[in-house]
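Bump. Still looking for Homoserine O-acetyltransferase structure tokens.
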Amino acid sequence: MENKTFTYKNNFVLESGQVLENLTIQYSTLGKLNSRKDNVIWVCHALTANSEVHNWWYGLVGEDKFFNPEKHFVICANILGSCYGTSGPLEVNPKTGKQYFLEFPQVTIRDMVNAHIVLKEELGITKIHSCIGGSLGGQQAMEWAIMAPDTIENLILLATNAFHSPWGIAFNESQRMAIKADKTWQECREDAGQEGLKAARAIALLSYRNYNTYVSTQKETDENKLDSYKASSYQNYQGVKLVNRFNCHSYLYLSKAMDSHHVGRGRGGAEVALKAIKSNTLVVGIKTDILFPVCEQIFLAQNIVGAEYQEIDSLYGHDGFLIETEKIAHILQDFYKRKTATGLF
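Sorry for the wait, here they are.
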């Protein structure tokens, strides 16, 4: 794996009309571009992930995995607004010489995709064999297939939607409320709002999993217990894990970007926008997903011309797109057998 950083020398205009100077993109690659330049797999990551896809999707990407660097040139770019090296609240504002923090402009999914396009052009890539993403990553992949319909040959959308639902926005707002209840959240320091971020992650986890997940993994065996429950410890543990690797300001910006996701904005509605997709498209839903319920993936499959829909079951709800890699790989193998004649899979 190679971690690299690209700095765009031109002004980068956001959907809002605001301009970012010195756009920086941190990205990672696995494998090499082949002589035909037809083996590019572009992975779009989700909310708090990073470009090191082989670490967080290790069941699907890596040596001897479905997306194998021996055959494929795998690219994953960290998204705008995050805290892993791409322009975001923790990066330095060239106008002030200080970190942006809450002066960073609001970004959208389309802005993230435009940054991907800038990087694609820098790398000399004209065609993407497959673009894949789950959740917010799927939102990016979908936008890209609409914005540049001749670029992506195969589009893989997992546990995602055409526009963010009132339910999803409510979850995100609840998390932002938790962050803003922390008196330090507006302070211009990287460790601001940590207690709020911890609580936000605990709220988010409830939407990523479901009732049966907790019954299966956090059930008590001591019926006389009055405190210190497994589920309580688990929520705290997950909150601390995120605090140790993420930042509250980035979390605020990225949750807002997810809320703004709507492929139909300025395009005559979602149904019209989805029909612009030319890619061979596979949509995967998770039966137990309460955050992105399967009705949202069925809507995609019904409105993307020629799209296929598959569904998996998982104890882990929405997080199944990260965890159920064996099931996903099986679905992908079947899809590619029917859709491509190349020897890449």
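The radius of gyration is 20 Å.

Edit: fixed formatting.
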